[in-house]
Specification:
Strand content: 25-35%
CATH architecture of the largest domain: 3-Layer(aba) Sandwich
Organism: Longimonas halophila
Number of strands: 24
Family: Belongs to the ribosome association toxin RatA family.
CATH topology of the largest domain: Rossmann fold
InterPro entries: COQ10_START, DUF1731, Epimerase_deHydtase, NAD(P)-bd_dom_sf, SDR39U1, START-like_dom_sf
Radius of gyration: 23 Å
Pfam families: DUF1731 (PF08338), Epimerase (PF01370), Polyketide_cyc (PF03364)
Number of domains: 2
Protein name: TIGR01777 family protein
Helix content: 25-40%
Length: 465
């Protein structure tokens, strides 16, 4: 029966390492973004408790049921397959103390493929390459999250999050919860759990009293701007979902006698408009010369009631988020991998990108730095030209990317959306995050892409037992 071991040494105590894995959100944080995996139910990690996982895409997804066993508090837990794609599967998670401030994370996997022992000789070729990718990713995420949370070794504020079903919101909720932050999700229905708060921008409904119980609000909700073409209806949804929802929350917070200390409201670097090769920072005035510029101006303006009420208000101008399971990368990477990748237009437009995990870090940094207010650019330190982004993807996938897609063709197909998402140049720099001491984990484009796409086995090579 094949056995793989994945060890890593981390600069945290074994207790902190165990606690991180035991908290809600750990499964979501450890699931690679390229893997079609959904957690359907989770009871916990105590002996006999189960996790129900859906693998693949509906309606053809498979169900994997894992049962936990051999739990030793602060030292290990194990899960074995009860139902799933393997003939046998057992995974031991161990947390070994090295010193008071260092520990070793060890993941031991023992498995058999279907038709074993006939299939055992094929295991190194069929199963192990993907297992190596996934566990290298898991260990990078574990290290990233624990290192980042250790920077802010203070009391954990209670955080309300809107847009928690979106790309960034889902990741943020899991990231905060594994870090020990109490999180309350804003939901557009009647709240049924203690960790939910009801709000509905369409009807103007919000549970202001529940908002009074939190220390900070992170507002991420808004219609996805990605679409083949913007219709008038789509543009109205993009505008209204941002402005109306933001104003509803800002008014509700301002009405409270004892409001949360902090209101972090998403915005976008689209606020700056097309600037060509000119670098822009938060010191540059926004422009309203295009649709997204108008949206951002109204979006940020809608936070004014909270700011006027004395609540520290941050307009987080987010760049192009790099994640395998959403946004631009979800569109670009399959095309490049298939050998169909091409650079939009001349490829000279600057892309103000940021790795998803660094965006989560910038949000937590902003939560804890009470001297940050107003506009804050959430981008990597070095924006790149579009052709560099596409060519780097080509290098990672070992595919050629010599083609250029004419601007006229892009505009004919996508209209106004083409300029906003593919042709506009915004050379935004995160001057305020830099000045306030934020450190990027994935500040270089190749490393960020390889991490997001699982195209690196860092931090280690697995040991085959």
């Amino acid at each position: 029966m094949p056995t793989l071991r994945f060890p890593s040494v981390l600069d945290v105590s074994a207790q902190a390492l165990y606690d991180w894995h035991a908290r809600p959100g750990a499964f979501e944080r450890l699931t690679p973004p390229w893997a079609p995996v959904q957690l359907a139910a989770f009871e916990g990690i105590e002996n006999g408790e189960r996790a129900v996982i859906r693998l693949g895409y509906e309606p053809l997804a498979l169900t994997w049921i894992a049962e936990h066993h051999s739990h030793i508090a602060r030292r290990q837990f194990c899960d074995r397959q009860v139902q799933g794609p393997f003939k046998q599967w057992n995974h031991t998670h161990r947390f070994e103390p090295i010193s008071d401030t260092r520990s070793r994370l060890v993941d031991d996997i023992t498995y058999d493929l279907p038709l074993a022992p006939l299939s055992t000789a094929l295991a190194p070729y069929l199963a192990e390459p993907e297992l190596r990718r996934q566990f290298a990713y898991r260990h990078r995420i574990t290290r990233h999250d624990l290192d980042l949370h250790a920077r802010y070794d203070t009391a954990r504020p209670t955080v309300a999050v809107s847009g928690s079903s979106g790309l960034v919101g889902r990741a943020l909720v899991a990231f905060l919860r594994t870090g020990g932050y109490p999180v309350r999700r804003l939901v557009r229905r009647s709240a049924t759990r203690p960790d939910e708060i009801t709000w509905n921008p369409s009807t103007g409904q919000v549970d202001a009293e529940a908002l009074a119980s939190v220390d900070a609000v992170v507002h991420l909700a808004g219609e996805n701007v990605f679409a083949p073409r913007w219709t008038a209806t789509k543009k109205a949804r993009i505008f209204d979902s941002r402005v109306r929802g933001t104003r509803l929350l800002a008014d509700a917070l301002a009405s409270l006698n004892d409001p949360p200390d902090t209101f972090i409201s998403a915005s976008a670097v689209g606020a700056y408009g097309d600037r060509g090769d000119t670098p822009v920072t938060e010191a540059n005035a926004p422009r309203t010369t295009d649709f997204l510029g108008e949206v951002c101006a109204a979006w940020e303006g809608a936070t004014a009631p909270a700011e006027s009420a004395g609540i520290r208000t941050v307009n987080l101008r987010i760049g192009v988020v790099l994640a395998a399971n959403g946004g631009a990368l979800q569109v670009l990477s399959p095309l490049v991998q298939a050998g169909l990748g091409g650079t939009p237009g001349r490829g000279t437009a600057f892309v103000p990108w940021i790795a998803l995990d660094d965006l989560l870090g910038s949000i937590v940094h902003t939560l804890h730095d009470d001297t940050l207010a107003g506009p804050v650019n959430a981008t990597a330190p070095a924006p790149v030209r579009m052709r560099t982004l596409v060519d780097t993807l080509g290098t990672i996938f070992s595919r050629p990317t010599p083609w250029r897609i004419p601007e006229a063709l892009i505009r004919a197909v996508s209209g106004e959306a083409a300029d906003a998402m593919a042709l506009k140049s915004i050379r935004a720099r995160p001057a305020r995050l830099t000045a306030h001491g934020f450190t990027w984990t994935f500040g270089e484009l190749p490393a960020a892409l390889r991490h997001a796409l699982g195209r690196t086995l860092r931090p280690h090579q697995p040991q085959r037992m």
